[in-house]
Write the structure tokens for this entry.
Amino acid sequence: MEAMRIRRMARIKKTVTFLIIIALVWISIVQTGFSLSTILTGLPNMRSLIDEMFPPDWSYFSSITEPMLATIRMAVLGTTFGAIFAIPVALLASRNVAKIPVVYQIARFIMNLIRTVPELLLAALFVPIFGIGEVSGILAISVFSFGIIAKLLYESIEAIDPGPLEAMTAVGANKVQWIFYGVVPQVVAHFMSYTLYSFEINVRAAAVLGYVGAGGIGLTLNNALSFYQYDRVLTIILYTFLVVLLIDLISNRIREKLI
Amino acid sequence: MIEFKNVSKVYPNGTVGLNNINIKINPGDFVVIVGLSGAGKSTFLRSINRLHEISEGDILIGDRSITKAWGKSLLNIRREIGMIFQNFNLVKRSTVLRNVLSGRVGYHSTIRTLLGLFPKEDVQLALDALETVNIKEKAYNRADELSGGQQQRVSIARAIAQEAKIILADEPVASLDPYTTTQVMDYLKKINQEMGITTVVNLHFVDLARQYATRIIGIRAGEIVFDGPVEEATDEVFSQIYGREIKKDELLGETT
């Protein structure tokens, strides 16, 4: 009897979950006005766009190298600043380091708050403050990578072996020495890996940030699009694709070696 | 000298860890603490360097109260007490030498230790300490490349380099095999005799306790139920400490 009742409950639960998902998808379709015909009528446009894109403007490659380098510079600087600021906050957010609940709760709150803001929004906020250009982009990327690195780092810190920490307390180390000899050697490889991972993401993000005026290749892409120079657009896309691929490849190799 | 004055420890959940302990441990003693697991051995040991806080009473290290010490003075007392742990507690990703040198951080300024700028004498001291436990050739290996017994010797070297006057060892051989167990205990005994370091060891092997201790303290339910020279610690005494007959797995066996 009991077993049958439990089985029936489980079945009802499954059915209800399924119905809720169907309802959500259906409501979304209705609200957005999504329909198959939109896609079908769009297909010929896609055809003409591709026609206009090919062949790509090969000569354009050399003139977008500078904005591409600017994009990478933005990612390098943004990642570095973000990583540096992530260290103290991640330490403060870790229960086993900060010890005092108020301290790590506040640090976690700040971390989570910053993580909820998408980088494009950050850039859109910084452009009116610091002006159009790379500085706004760098700041946006700094804040964004701070969020990623701080979160991942604090999770690693909380998972370290408590043994060496106890040993450092026992030898009479002060808190800073305790952190440098007990915590740091256990997480430094993770930290490097997270920084590289964040750099991979940042290169992609930096490529888009120009769209809101925050410098880099996105600005060039925006110009090409608004002048309907689709052959140039394709060149930019291909170039970005190559650079991102290369950076991911190198970064992944290094990260495999690290851990 | 270590002195416990009316020391009690009650855990937040109400468990009594230590109940009104009064005891003196003299300089140069090799004391072995025996008792069932959960009897309070570890609480007793860890309250000496205040890894555990006590609820009542006072603990004196030499003539200084560690219970009342705070800030720099607490660190200064701790720096003279070496500690050996069951799981060695080395930083596995660091070199053996760096692990030993970590015992020296209490003697130098923060900035100097962060930059790893230990004076030449400290490096020599660390290498000599490794020599004492016969593992100097591993100084530049990563700690996790060493076997358990070797890692425990490194942690003894850390305590030596610390120039500790007291060494506390909390189940130092519990995760080692019988052969390395004897090795590690021999080194502890050696530095106790040659350097006159007061040594307090928690052990659950009865025969090992008899073999190495000069004095045995039996703890049961947070109270000292036996305290005397090793000669007086007969089988009946151990049965009393344990509240039952000695079981086979409480004897190490073949090495005695």
Q: What stands out?
A: DSSP finds nine helices and ten strands in chain B.
